[in-house]
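Summary for the lay section of the report: proteins are chains of building blocks that fold into shapes. Here we show the chain for UDP-glucose 4-epimerase and then a coded description of the shape we predicted for it.
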Amino acid sequence: MISSKHCLVTGAAGFIGSHLCDRLLSLGHRVTGLDSLIVGNPKNLENAKTHPQFTFLHQDVAGVTPQTLENIDWIFHLAGLADLVPSIQNPENYYHSNVHGTFALLNACRHANIKRFVYTASSTCYGIPDTYPTPETYPCSPEHPYALTKYLGEQLVMHWAKVYKLPALSLRLFNVYGPRSRTTGAYGAVFGVFLKQKLAGQPFTVVGDGKQTRDFTFVSDVVEAFVKAAQSDVTNEIINVCSGQPQSVLRLVELLGGEITHIPKRPGEPDCTWGDITKAKTLLGWEPQVSFPDGVAQMLDHIELWREAPLWTPDSIKEATKEWFEYLGKQP
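The coded shape description reads as follows.
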């Protein structure tokens, strides 16, 4: 049994971060959760805040100092801005959060005795690959500012691991879903869009023909990957975290149950995301446990969480994604 550690989770009030806080506390670790609450939802931390081993810091990750990291053993860096469309509209905000914020945290680590640093990377760095399942060695080609800023953050982490001997790992996450995923804000992940549409009795807005596949990965599996990464002796590695069993959007519709309306296919989106999880299995001893049907069933059990979410229609999606088409569409 591993000894108790003092963990810092940045982005603690976010979707994955809050689940990770709960899991670390259940394992007997002390957890300091840090979140600016610009994106994170305080309700996600209702369980953690009742635990005597949990402390919350309301601040931006860019403001972390060596003093903040005093007595911290493990860092899980999940803070950052997500979503594709807003990154096209406001690339400066994404650079500040995902690149500068990561740099500031890493710089503070130079003056602290950190035992493990686990970075949350994104599989969007692969762009539109032509190799499936896609290995970590595949050349990265980000298609939009979000993907680029997450990739730049990952490169900083790997550089710190190399030059400053920070014991770091980067986990490239694929299409994570589960309870507490974002229910407000910009047009984004398919689950949130579809669940609200189901509640409203509206047809699912399927992009293209719906045959495109995504490597959907349930949040509890992702959290276990973070835990195993921190517990391992592996360092200076980039590791895919995914199910390795891509599912089509039409399969998701089948499991959710409902009518369909089709909207135009979007530029810069791959027809398939499918990660190679060989490294995760061999280096971390990790593999996913939640099947797609079981994961979707859990989402339906929590569908009321999306009651107040925005209802996206073909017209509102067209308006929200017009800059997507403008900037990522083929040039004449």
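Put simply, here is one thing we learned. The chain has two domains: 6-176+218-241, 178-214+245-273+290-328.
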